[in-house]
């Protein structure tokens, strides 16, 4: 018996939400590192084509165009004495005895670069994109060890805000983690040691306000209670906040410390159940300009390492910080509430209240209210992907509404593009990007120019945010993509990116983002009639069994085979990247026309068709046409005798 079997390599059982489309991108622009870079920092300025990547003893200045990447490498080696000392001390890991670039940030016009320098951190200034020099300028700068950790495995976060740099250092070994203001014209400040319990930092963000002095910075981290009992969860996800106007306390109280620091607990899990994700790994914030409104996305894991994403309202967080009682403090505040963002120069009465408040701030850093996610539960995302990094974007759609798109990097080097609306999570697509599959380590998004930069230990790749050409040539395919960056141009009959400056009142592009419904295209009747011309397959001999492949485009559609002049339809024998029709009991797979039909959004559309002809000619020649189609999509063909 001759069997042709097509097996889909990527066939997996999909659980939970799944990406509707899957794209494999192996084209430029991409950059390959000469050696693996297991820790990468990134700096990208909106509107530019240049990405700065900090690696081991090197700063990569990568300039992208649509066709290629031009790279320039700035050496940033450790001094030999630091390396020797590091190796002699048998520090955490000898591999870490080098200069890993952990900080690449622009503060005003100063480009600050800091590295681990083999256990004794150093900072430089990057000048003219080429030269590293000592940091100069009028402002103050903290010791480099407050800005960069001594080893890259100790996670740190740096955020420029208002001409100052804020640095958060995670705790390792005997070091308490701290948040500091480390550079700029404002006073250098820090958190008190007792305020944070072994923090591991996950992110930081500026929270804008209509009045500048009310601007705040949120820090995202996870605390770890070393003395927790075995039956207790030792991790707690946190948000800490300070005001950018903070100038520290008075000589007797908190002289070098923030006086506006509060922290709160963040929950991520189903309601009040035990199923909580307490370890926040990363966080991003989307805010509207000058408004204290927006959304925060936190990436969490639980004790078993499963990752989920929870969304929070910035207004909820802001309300908690402004109104909540302080944990363990039951007296009423009297005058102004402690920790408010206020302009300097208090009146004498204020000054007295201020001293009292400093006392409260010193001993009661935690608020009582707990922050819970919007929609109560974690976002409904595919469960078979471990998410390693997230970025987010706000897109103005053609209905004049803003939509949120999340980009989730996975441990397999994939990126999921997700539309998040209040009602729903819709997984627009999954990109497989890399030659060498490895976790996504870092991403940077440029909303202005419309680019996403994705880095693994081996490669850095750039993707367009509006990747509309991949969605197909029909209105229905364009609309069902539910991609807020793309709309159907009725006049030109093309799926196109919404152009900059698009006028939502006079524009003619169409979209439907709130549900998978393409009735707006008004082409249902035409779709029903559409037929493909069948490819002819000549079958030799009675005992030859043929398998017919139908490429799966949308993973949200139902694929089936139908035979002409026959009321029956046949399920896929295998599914995955192909819906394969093969011999099952009573299937007359010998002669006739077989059509592969995909049903989505209530419409059935024909994808491919084959005509099987039974005559004496050679089979393998005509079968090549099927293989040509399938080879494209990484399908293995086995010929079993
Ligand atoms: C940077 O470029 C400017 C103008 O080309 C030059 O005057 C300056 O010396 C350069 N600085 C360094 C540190 O190379
Ligand atoms: C940054 O710029 C602001 C406003 O231009 C200025 O007040 C501040 O001193 C600058 N900071 C540094 C560190 O140069
Ligand atoms: C850590 O856990 C122990 C045991 O439950 C508890 O007594 C202690 O108060 C916790 N520490 C903090 C700072 O919450
Ligand atoms: C859009 O077009 C309308 C009508 O021509 C005009 O009144 C409006 O100002 C335009 N909006 C923008 C943002 O340009
Ligand atoms: C799609 O939208 C149209 C118009 O809003 C509506 O009449 C129709 O019932 C919707 N179809 C589905 C499948 O929801
Ligand atoms: C077809 O298969 C049957 C059962 O496996 C076998 O008995 C028969 O000889 C085969 N015929 C040909 C022409 O190979």
From TrEMBL:
Q: Which domain of life is it from?
A: Eukaryota
The cross-references to InterPro entries, in alphabetical order and at most eight, read: Ig-like_fold, Plexin_repeat, PSI, Semap_dom, Semap_dom_sf, Semaphorin, WD40/YVTN_repeat-like_dom_sf
Q: Does the keyword Membrane apply?
A: yes
Pfam families in alphabetical order = PSI, Sema
Q: Does the keyword Transmembrane apply?
A: yes
Q: Name one GO molecular function term.
A: chemorepellent activity
- Parts of the chain that traverse the membrane: 618-640
Give the GO terms filed under biological process for this record: axon guidance; neural crest cell migration; positive regulation of cell migration; semaphorin-plexin signaling pathway
Which residue numbers delimit the Sema domain?
20-465
Q: Which SMART domains does this one have?
A: PSI (SM00423), Sema (SM00630)
Q: What is its main location?
A: membrane
Q: Which residues form the signal peptide?
A: 1-16
Q: Which cell locations does it reside in?
A: Membrane
Which keywords, in A-to-Z order, does the entry hold? Developmental protein, Differentiation, Disulfide bond, Glycoprotein, Membrane, Neurogenesis, Signal, Transmembrane, Transmembrane helix
Record-level GO cellular component terms: plasma membrane
Family classification: Belongs to the semaphorin family.
Read off the PANTHER family from this record: SEMAPHORIN, SI:CH211-113G11.6 ISOFORM X1
Q: What is this protein called?
A: Semaphorin-1A
């Amino acid at each position: 018996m001759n069997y042709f079997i097509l097996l889909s390599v990527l066939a997996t059982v999909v659980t939970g939400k799944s990406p509707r489309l899957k794209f494999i991108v192996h084209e430029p622009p991409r950059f390959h590192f000469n050696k693996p870079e297991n820790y990468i920092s990134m700096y990208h300025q909106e509107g530019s084509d240049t990405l700065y990547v900090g690696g081991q003893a090197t700063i990569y200045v990568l300039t992208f165009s649509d066709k290629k990447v031009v790279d320039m490498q700035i050496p940033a080696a450790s001094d030999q004495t630091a390396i020797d000392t590091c190796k002699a001390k048998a520090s955490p890991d000898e591999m870490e005895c080098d200069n890993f670039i952990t900080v690449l940030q622009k503060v005003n016009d100063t480009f600050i670069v800091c590295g681990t320098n083999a256990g004794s951190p150093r900072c430089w200034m990057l000048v003219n994109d080429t030269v590293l020099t000592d940091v100069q300028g009028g402002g103050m700068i903290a010791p480099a060890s407050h800005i960069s950790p001594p080893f890259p495995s100790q996670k740190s976060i740096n955020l420029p805000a208002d001409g100052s740099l804020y640095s958060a250092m995670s705790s390792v070994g005997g070091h308490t983690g701290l948040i500091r203001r480390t550079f700029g014209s404002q006073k250098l400040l820090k958190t008190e040691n007792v305020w944070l319990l072994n923090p591991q930092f996950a992110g930081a963000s500026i929270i804008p306000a209509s009045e500048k002095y009310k601007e705040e910075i949120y820090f995202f981290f996870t605390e770890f209670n070393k003395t927790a009992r075995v039956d207790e969860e030792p991790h707690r996800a946190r948000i800490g906040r300070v005001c950018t106007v903070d100038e520290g306390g008075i000589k007797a109280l908190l002289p070098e410390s923030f006086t506006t620091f509060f922290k709160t607990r963040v929950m991520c899990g189903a309601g009040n159940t035990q199923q909580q994700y307490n370890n926040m790994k990363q966080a991003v914030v989307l805010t509207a300009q000058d408004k204290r409104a927006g959304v925060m996305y936190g990436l969490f894991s639980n004790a078993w390492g499963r990752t989920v994403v929870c969304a929070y309202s910035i207004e909820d967080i802001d309300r908690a910080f402004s109104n909540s009682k302080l944990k363990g403090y039951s007296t009423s505040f009297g005058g102004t509430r402690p920790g408010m963002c206020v302009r300097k120069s208090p009146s004498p009465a204020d000054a007295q209240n201020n001293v009292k408040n400093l006392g409260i701030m010193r001993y009661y850093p935690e608020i009582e209210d707990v922050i819970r996610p919007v929609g109560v539960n974690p976002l409904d995302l595919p469960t078979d992907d471990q998410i390693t990094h997230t970025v987010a974007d706000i897109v103005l759609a053609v209905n004049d509404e803003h939509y949120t798109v999340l980009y989730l990097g996975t441990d397999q080097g994939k990126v999921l593009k997700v539309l998040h609306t209040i009602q729903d999570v819709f997984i627009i697509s999954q990109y497989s990007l890399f030659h060498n599959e490895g976790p996504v380590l870092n991403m940077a998004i440029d909303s202005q120019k419309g680019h996403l930069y994705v880095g693994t230990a081996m490669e850095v790749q750039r993707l367009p945010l509006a990747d509309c050409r991949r969605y197909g040539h029909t209105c229905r395919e364009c609309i069902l993509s539910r991609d807020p960056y793309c709309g159907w141009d009725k006049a030109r009959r093309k799926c196109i990116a919404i152009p900059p400056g698009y006028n939502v009142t006079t524009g003619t592009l169409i979209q439907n983002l709130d549900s998978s419904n393409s009735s707006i295209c008004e082409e249902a009747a035409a779709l029903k009639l559409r037929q493909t011309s069948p490819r002819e397959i000549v079958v030799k001999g009675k005992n030859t069994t043929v398998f017919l492949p139908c490429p799966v485009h949308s993973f949200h559609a139902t694929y089936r085979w139908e035979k002409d002049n026959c009321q029956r339809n046949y399920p896929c024998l295998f599914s995955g990247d192909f819906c394969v029709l093969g011999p099952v009991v009573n299937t007359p797979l010998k002669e006739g026309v077989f059509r592969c039909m995909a049903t989505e959004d209530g419409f059935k559309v024909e994808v491919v068709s084959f005509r099987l002809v039974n005559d004496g000619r050679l089979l393998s020649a005509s079968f090549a046409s099927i293989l040509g189609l399938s080879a494209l999509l990484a399908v293995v063909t086995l010929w079993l005798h």
